[in-house]
TrEMBL record:
Membrane topology annotation: Multi-pass membrane protein
GO molecular function, one term: protein-disulfide reductase activity
GO biological process: protein folding
Keywords annotated in UniProt: Membrane, Transmembrane, Transmembrane helix
InterPro entries, alphabetized: DiS_bond_form_DsbB/BdbC (IPR003752), DsbB-like_sf (IPR023380), Uncharacterised_DsbB (IPR024199)
Protein name (record): Disulfide bond formation DsbB-like protein
Location within or outside the cell: Membrane
Entry keyword Membrane: yes
């Protein structure tokens, strides 16, 4: 008598779900700092969130592909894609940290200061088009010497390594 393997026992399911959860925690933390902590993100901060926004559903699709018995290479490819997105996110974080440390110039879309919103409801719609985020060159907060961009590099590299280990273990 042979035991029937549960789809949950496949490594790619576990790695994909844990990767999606890790990415959700990281981007959720960033959103918490924004909406609860009051830290307004700059243009580069917002850009660094995109690999997470794309990576979470890709990792979940990888778990679902494995769970529903699609060929193993499909689930592994999706997990690999999510890992590559985390490498891209780390690169974006390095770029942003370099801008903050004035190693190189930031993009022209980064403003020099954030203006306040009007109190006049009639002017609100016209002012929405002119309000910009803070400058990308100034770190809003540093913890242990690292800005949000620096911590994103670390988180992205850990998540990428986790994804790559998952791809290898599920071969």
């Amino acid at each position: 008598m042979t035991a029937i393997a549960s789809p949950l026992s496949r490594p790619v399911v576990l790695y994909s779900l844990l990767l999606a959860l890790g990415m959700a925690v990281v981007v959720g933390t960033a959103l918490g700092f924004q909406y609860i902590g009051g830290y307004i993100p700059c243009a580069l901060c917002l850009l660094q969130r995109q690999p997470y926004y794309y990576g979470i559903p890709i990792a979940i699709l990888g778990a679902l592909a494995s769970f529903f018995g699609l060929p193993n290479w499909v689930a592994r490819a999706l997990l690999l894609a999510a890992g590559i997105l985390m490498v891209v996110g780390a690169g974006m974080g390095v770029y942003h940290a370099g801008v903050e440390w004035h190693f190189w110039a930031g993009p022209a879309t980064c403003s020099t200061s954030a203006g306040s919103m009007t109190q006049n409801a009639g002017d609100l719609l016209s002012e929405l088009n002119t309000v910009t985020g803070p400058s990308c060159t100034d770190a809003a907060l540093r913890v242990l010497g690292l800005s949000f961009a620096g911590w994103n590099v670390i988180a992205s590299l850990i998540l990428a390594a986790f994804a790559f280990v998952g791809v290898r273990k599920s071969a």
